[in-house]
Automatic annotation (TrEMBL):
Residues annotated as transmembrane: 14-33
Chain ranges of the YknX-like C-terminal permuted SH3-like domain: 298-366
Listed name of the protein: Multidrug resistance protein MdtA
Protein family per UniProt: Belongs to the membrane fusion protein (MFP) (TC 8.A.1) family.
Domain CusB-like beta-barrel: 219-292
All copies of domain Multidrug resistance protein MdtA-like barrel-sandwich hybrid, residue ranges: 77-208
Keywords assigned: Membrane, Transmembrane, Transmembrane helix
Source taxon at top rank: Bacteria
Pfam name, any one: YknX_C
InterPro entries in the cross-refs: Beta-barrel_RND_2, MdtA-like_BSH, RND_pump_MFP, YknX-like_C
Length: 370
């Protein structure tokens, strides 16, 4: 009887154990089924978006510049020597015929004195040769000498004449050198820069002074190579002056340097001023605002909005919280912005952050917009 009770108790424990296992399996299965049946809301990516602005406004870029003269000359002495006097200062206006600097003329004067002595000796030799020729012509007429002797004195006279002419040319050249010791301005202008001081020894052709001639005034700016196409195509520009509040002058691009500066890697650009006011002076600081024509740039978007495929750049366009990949044509890059030439319209919404975790026709959730 006891054995039977023990077996029945054991069967009951086994039965209840199986029931517990089945219950646990059902609970776990139900939980997993609920998790699988949930919508994929937890997998919706979070992105930032931006509304594309209007494309009808012309883009403008501003460059710092300086008022310069259109015609400038770097002046130098035609002879070398020590500068003895400087008669002008930077910014001084000068007139044609004014003496700007002078070189000590002592050495040049000694050269002139030497040339004068050589000229006198050559002229004396020529006079002697002329007298000898006259006498020997009389002797030849009297058959006292041969024709060969007369030819000798004729040749000596011609040699003396050539030596006299040579000495005369050297003397005149020396006289010109004396005039070159004074740096004289040929046209009215303004002294922009002085490159040498009194007591300094300079060589012939070494720049000692920069002169800006009276006349047209221009603005000189320096443009990076990525902006050069815009400057070339800009129809006009607006020039403002820091020292002249409220003064705005129209400008036009006149000249673009063919090569970039070796150090700054920028291109020098000259802007002609159209009817500048008299108050515009050399050296003034100016701001040049380049204006591109209408529709020259479609849009500017953050660089982070671009999604590069294998062959071309794209952007994710958002409509009803669903993204679509669209191919765009990009232009110039400016820091963290890039120009979009085609592919986008004003008012469209694009993704600017989180572009690399999206898929075509995927639903997204916006956490911020610009």
């Amino acid at each position: 009887m006891q054995v039977k009770s023990f077996l029945e108790l054991k069967r009951r424990k086994l039965f209840y154990g199986l029931i517990a296992i089945v219950t646990v399996c059902l609970v776990v299965g139900s939980f997993l089924g609920k998790e699988q049946g949930k919508p994929a809301a937890a997998n919706i990516p979070l992105v930032r978006t931006k509304i594309v602005g209007s494309a009808d406004k012309a883009a403008a870029y501003t460059y710092a510049g300086e008022v310069r003269g259109r015609y400038e000359s770097q002046l130098a002495f035609q002879v070398g020597g020590k500068i003895s006097n400087r008669f002008v200062d930077e910014g001084m206006a000068v007139q044609a015929g004014d003496v700007l600097m002078s070189i000590d003329p002592k050495d040049v004067q000694e050269v002139i004195n030497n040339n004068a002595a050589q000229l006198a000796a050559a002229q004396a030799q020529q006079k002697l040769a002329e007298s000898n020729l006259a006498r020997y012509k009389q002797l030849y007429a009297q058959d006292a000498i041969s024709k060969a002797e007369l030819d000798y004195y004729q040749n000596a006279y011609e040699v003396a004449g050539a030596a006299s002419r040579q000495a005369t040319a050297q003397y005149e050249q020396g006289s010109n050198q004396l005039g070159y010791t004074r740096l004289v301005v040929e046209q009215a202008g303004v002294v922009a820069h002085i490159g040498a001081e009194t007591g300094q020894v300079v060589s012939a052709g070494e720049m000692v002074l920069t002169l800006v001639y009276d006349g047209e005034r221009e603005i000189e700016i320096h443009v990076p190579e990525n902006r050069l196409p815009e400057v070339k195509e800009a129809p006009e520009c607006e020039v403002l002056f820091w020292a002249l509040p409220g003064v705005s002058v129209e400008g036009r691009v006149r000249e673009i340097a063919p090569m970039a500066n070796a150090l700054t890697r920028t291109y020098k650009v000259r802007i002609s001023l159209v009817n500048p006011p008299p108050a515009v002076s050399l050296g003034m600081t100016a701001s040049v605002m380049m204006k591109n024509g209408e529709h020259s740039v479609v849009n500017t978007i953050p660089l982070t909005a671009l999604y590069q495929t294998e062959h071309q750049p794209c952007v994710w366009v958002v409509k009803d919280n669903v993204v679509t990949l669209r191919v765009v044509e990009v232009g110039l890059q400016d820091n963290d912005l890039v120009q979009i030439l085609s592919g986008l319209q004003a008012g469209e919404v694009i993704v600017t952050a989180g572009v690399h975790k999206l898929q075509e026709k995927q639903q997204i959730k916006v956490i911020g917009s610009n």
